[in-house]
Amino acid sequence: MRSKNQELTRARRAGFTLTELLVVVGLIAVLISLLLPALTKARAAANASACLSNLRQMGTAWSMYIAENRGRLPEYVTATPPTPDVAWKSYWPGILDTYKVRGDAIPCPPARDPDPFNQNNGSGNVKYAWSGKYDAPGTVLTFNAATLRQGSYGYHRYLPAINARSGHSGGYGTQITSVRRMSEVPVFLDAVSVDFRPANGTDLFPVQPPPNLRGEGFPGSAPEHWRFLIARHGRGINVAMADGSAHWVPLEETYLMTWKTDWIRYRLMLPLY
Q1: Which of 140, 170, 142 is nearest to 75 (CA)?
Q2: Has residue 14 been placed in a domain?
Q3: Angle subtended at Cα 228 by Cα 226 and Cα 234, rounded to the nearest 5 degrees
Q4: What are the pLDDT digits (tens) for 35-89?
Q5: Domain that holds residue 112
Q6: Residue 266 falls within a domain, yes or no?
Q7: Are 75 and 160 in contact (CB under 8 A)?
Q8: Number of domains, the chain
Q9: Strand 186-190 with 153-156, pairing
Q10: What is the chain written as a DSSP string?
Q11: Is residue 226 situated within a structural domain?
């Protein structure tokens, strides 16, 4: 028959000491710290892949529109308050909607929801989508108070046909046949606004860099190229090209793409973050 002391000794041996528990907890913490970066990278890779898929769909719809309109580039339309249907169905958001590219295909996964605060009439940033919530009814982004659009991609505004008719220099005319080196011409990009027409500059006299790469705190008068200089996918953005391809472009190399016929290409100097 076992003594009471023997039973107590056995019970102690069956359990864990405080030191042993602390060692186990420490090992678990180390494992978590090792796994978190890998999980973060895996999530970022999945988001980037979904973003590229969205851009390919958008590029396909854009190409289908051009093919069905005998090579004519889309018109630039922003607002038609007396006839809200016109603006709502026009320009690139309306064109994509016609080809069933809408909803989850318009926001980039890391920037799916609009900014809860009104920044520059509904602009987004690296983490938030732009929104028509603060726009007037009868525009491309806002049909009425109950029907609006939000997204996190922007359109290259040297491409709309109206640029040629309204006297803007260096665009692409009215037909797709005027677009050369289509694999170098961006169409849709990660952005904080619905469109942009970047200033060019030169290697010796470059454009003004943004104060940060987060898209935060920009004034309403900020240069338009700041709208896509955001570190949404690492230090770069995803871009759909005019030839139907889509790929990641480092922010410093966005000016190496061909934005218009007389574009001067050079690398940008940008802030660290």
Answers
A1: 140
A2: no
A3: 115
A4: 667 666 777 788 889 999 999 999 999 999 999 999 999 999 888 999 999 999 9
A5: 58-256
A6: no
A7: yes
A8: 1
A9: antiparallel
A10: ---HHHHHHHHHHHS--HHHHHHHHHHHHHHHHHHHHHHHHHHHHHHHHHHHHHHHHHHHHHHHHHHHTTTBPPP---B-TTSHHHHHTSHHHHHHHHTT--GGGSS-GGG-SBPSS-STTT---SSSBEESTTSPSSBSSEEETTEE-EESEEEETTSSTHHHHTT-TTS--SBGGG--SGGG-EEEEE-SSSEE------SSSPPPPPS-SS--S--TT--GGGGT---SSSSEEEEEETTS-EEEEEGGGGGGS--STTPPP-PPP----
A11: yes
Q: pLDDT tens across 84-108, in order?
A: 999 999 899 999 999 999 887 889 9
Q: How far apart are CA 156 and CA 223, in angstroms?
A: 14
158 falls within a domain: yes
Retrieve residue 99's tokens: 């080809």
Rounded to whole angstroms, the Cα distance separating 221 from 58 reads 28
Tokens (6 digits) for 29: 């913490």
CA torsion, ordered 266, 159, 244, 113, to nearest 10 deg = 90
pLDDT tens digits for range 209-258: 999 999 998 988 899 999 999 999 999 999 999 999 999 999 999 999 99
